[in-house]
Amino acid sequence: MRKDVFNFRITEHMEKVGAFDMPKVKKFDEKDLNCKFLIVSPFNYAMTETEPQSKICHFYIDDYQFERIWTEPQSYVEILKKFNAVIGPDFSMYSNLPKAQQIYNNWRNKVLMAFFQTQGIKVIPNVQWANQDSFSYCFDGIEPGGVVAICSTGCHRKESKQKFVEGYNKMLDVVHPNKIICVGKLPNELEKDEKIFQINSFMEVKRQLWAEEEQNLDQIDKKAF
Prior knowledge:
Elements: H1 8-11, E1 16-17, E2 22-23, E3 40-42, E4 56-58, H2 68-71, H3 77-81, E5 85-87, H4 99-118, E6 123-124, E7 147-151, H5 158-175, E8 179-183, E9 196-199, H6 202-224
């Protein structure tokens, strides 16, 4: 049997919208979040996560760490089902990538989000953009309303922050989310937006723990002398 490298089996019957045939991704209702506190866990820790039912799995990590879900999406359905919710995949849309690759990665993300939704996984739509050129397709397929997720990692230099804020404002106009989960630090311009629920990224949490451990060691050293 020939390997379905293009995932025709899962894309053939998907509802598609827009000039680039982006799959339709259903909105996520806030009531479907059962955990009291939102804690995120990156996909590369999904198989070893001991309490997935209390966490949201995300793909805001290097692309190579989750390329496997594109080649074998069915293999990860049962793993992702265990999580309270899953933020959709995030194949990169860097502004310096060729436009064709940006469109392809955005399309792949939506293919997987739509597929996982059909498998009973509670998927929070991941909304991403590159620059203004991407606005013609990057929001296509995302059903308006509901909860969406974004990632601000790497968006704090002047130029990248400007593009991030522009895309964010365009998303509000097109997608009309009622709540936005932002993984990573917020740009100053968005700190007063009441729709945003900010969660530190995995590495930010790690850095905070390392800093606290280092501070505790310093206090122990001082007491020793």
